Amino acid sequence: ISIPDNWEYNKGKDIVDGYHELVDVTNPQEIDEVNSILSLSRLTIKKLQRVQNWNLYRRYQIMKAEVSEAVQKYMPSAQVEKRLYHGTRSSNLAAICKSGFDRDFSGTAAGSVHGTGTYFAVNAQLSRKFGDGLLLARVLTGIYTASSGSDRPNLSVIPGSQSERVHSVVDNADKPT
Fold it and tell me: In 3-state terms, what secondary structure has residue 174?
């Protein structure tokens, strides 16, 4: 797994286990990309930073390969990854950036109407209802199913599979919010 091209770091410094930092985004192309994603939300960017966390990045890439394989096998038309928003209290941002999203905190801010998990939204305004901090994240949505409305984990199996579980749960399978 190689270091992403857009990461900004001291090239003489090795990226090793435990490396993580928040970096102010200065690349005009990356700024334009985020602005275009946010343009529909009518939000103003106060500070734009990128999380550069080597351990989280490697885990994500390994999981992305697994999800991609299942998507290719069972539902090739499905998107593996989407850019989604996560709203939280700003006091939680540093911990999330260092250790990742933690399902143990599921439901602590606003309940868990769709089951145990980390909640994301297509719309930034919806995510902002859950805190003053906002993260734009790459999320492995893969093959998803509609929520049962239960506060328990959804253990649905991918259609056509004997035992592989869906990758995510959404409020509306036709048009997730």
Answer: coil
80 vs 78: CA distance, rounded Å: 6
Q: Which of 132, 46, 139 is nearest to 87 (CA)?
A: 132
> What residue spans of the chain are helical by DSSP H?
28-38, 54-74, 93-99, 124-128
Q: Cα 127 to chain center, whole Å?
A: 12
What global pTM score does this model have?
0.86
Residue located via tokens 């996560």: 86
Rounded to whole angstroms, how far apart are CA atoms 144 and 114? 12
For residues 33 and 48, the answer to whether their CB atoms sit within 8 Å is no
Q: Are strands 20-24 and 81-88 parallel, antiparallel or unpaired?
A: unpaired
pLDDT (0 to 100) of residue 115: 67
The CA-atom distances, in angstroms, between 44 and each of 11, 17, 34, 123, 157 are: 32, 34, 11, 14, 40
Q: What is the mean pLDDT of residues 153-161?
A: 88
- Determine what percent of the chain is predicted with pLDDT higher than 90: 45
